[in-house]
Amino acid sequence: MRPEKKSHFMHKATKAIHAGNLEKPIFGEVSVPIFQSSTFSFPTAEEGAARFSGEKSGFIYTRMGNPTTKALEDNIAALEGGFAGMATATGMAAITTVYLALLGQGAHVVSTDSVYGPTRMVLEKEFSRFGIEATFVDTSVLDDVRRAMRPNTRMVFIETPANPTMKISDIRATAEIAHQHNALLVVDNTFASPYLQQPLRLGADIGVHSLTKFINGHSDVVGGIIVTRNGDLYSRIKPVLNLFGGTMDPHQAWLVLRGVRTLPLRVERSQENAQQMAKFLLAHPEVSWVSYPGLEEHPQHDIAKRQMDGFGSMICFGVKNGFEGGKTVMNNVNLFTLAVSLGGVESLIEHPASMTHASVPRNERIEAGILDELVRISVGCEDISDLRADLDQALNKIAQNELREESSVVAPELVTRRAINNKTILRR
Ligand code: LCS
Description:
Order of helices and strands: HHHEHEHEHEHEEEHHHEHEHEEHEHH
Number of helices: 15
Strand order of the largest sheet: 1-7-6-5-4-2-3
Strand content: 5-15%
Shape: globular
Bound molecules: ligand LCS
CATH topology of the largest domain: Aspartate Aminotransferase, domain 2
CATH superfamily of the largest domain: Type I PLP-dependent aspartate aminotransferase-like (Major domain)
Helix content: 40-55%
Number of strands: 12
């Protein structure tokens, strides 16, 4: 199950294209074939028994392993610098499989508060039914992590950069805290992708990804993966995945493999766009704040610089006029698509409070920094001037709407005066 040794000597852009490929192509094919077979024949009864006992390696049944899926697993494990990967049906299947395999009754988890909504809800609503407790803290503050640790803490789960606040948690320092308490550190690396961040190299025990996002990169498939630091963790998680059955289908794996080939190109382009977009937003009069780790103003910019090879292409920002302002922007974009998800070649925009994080109670959401006014964008690979022009015209509608609203309740001369004071052209 180990990714081929030769991939260890490759640079990451080369790994994305070559790691995991079949060592002996069947017909000299360049693309890994889709092994669309649910089951695999045994030449003899003895061979079948040996594969089941683990005495011999070989494929048995696709829920337990498939050559196309394995090619993807080896590819991502090589990029992430881990022992081995386990591909799953979705990112949530990766996360829940890790919880299922490593937590039991009476266990306690410390998790980033600003994580993808369902990652939090599955602990609060579902795993709590089995006697598993969770504490959600701002893991970008190490003292908060230390304070949350208990004797029964088995796992620290961080998402960095966090969805959607873009807060950064220090992976190396958090790993030290977790290990001092005999707990494991799991990092959701979805927002960075293994091209920009390799948590296992910084001391984490397990990396998880929603492959739906940057790794696949084309908004046309869902998937997830778990990558472990060592063989022990792999052999604790793999049987649980096989039993619960959240495995990936070979056709899905092939699509993600095709996507990962261009991960380096897409990430380079979209993060260059994002850096320019963040600066543009910071200067925009309708924007009250911007959170992007690539900005020097970002509170954890230095940590991001240290642990990432780039700052990625996710940005969140607050707009003037709160939730209403956010709605105005989303209803007026033309090039950005109003949709959840992220990491595709096309730029997306969404409102976490009413969409991806709607499942988190409002007070917990606000406490985690997911404010009503927060708008999240996934900057794609389009031409930056087109993207900027689109957001600019949509943002400018906030001021126009405010003026229109004011005009319905106050005297026209007052509106005119306010409009002039704001140097805004009044259209009535
Ligand atoms: N982890 C992170 C950081 C995510 O952003 C998501 C999905 C998941 C895990 C779950 O992955 P899935 O099961 O969907 O493959 N995030 C989404 C988002 O922000 N908008 O829509 C989905």
